[in-house]
Amino acid sequence: MGRRWPKISRKRSENSCKRRIHPPSAPGRGGGSTVFQEYAMTKAADKTMAPAVTRDVTLRIGGESGEGIVTTGEVLARIAAYAGLEVYTLRTIPAEIKGGHVMFQMRVGSEPVHSEGDALDILLAFNQEAYDKHHRELRAGGILIYDNNELTPPAIAGEIQYALPLTSLAKGIDFFRGKNIVAIGALVKIFGLPYDKAKAVVERQLGRRGADLLAKNLQALEVGYTYAEQNITKEAPYNLGVPEGERGADHRLVMSGNQALAIGALAAGCTFYAGYPITPASDIMEFLAAELPKVGGTLIQAEDEMAALGMAMGASYAGARAMTATSGPGLDLMIELLGHASMTETPVVIVDVQRAGPSTGMPTKTSQGDLFLAVYGGHDDFPRLVVAPLSVEDCFYAAVDAFNLAEKYQMPVIILSDFALSNRVETIPSFDMSRVQRVQRLLWTASGDGDNSY
Question: Topology of domain 8-247, per CATH?
Answer without folding.
Answer: Pyruvate-ferredoxin Oxidoreductase; domain 3 (3.40.920)
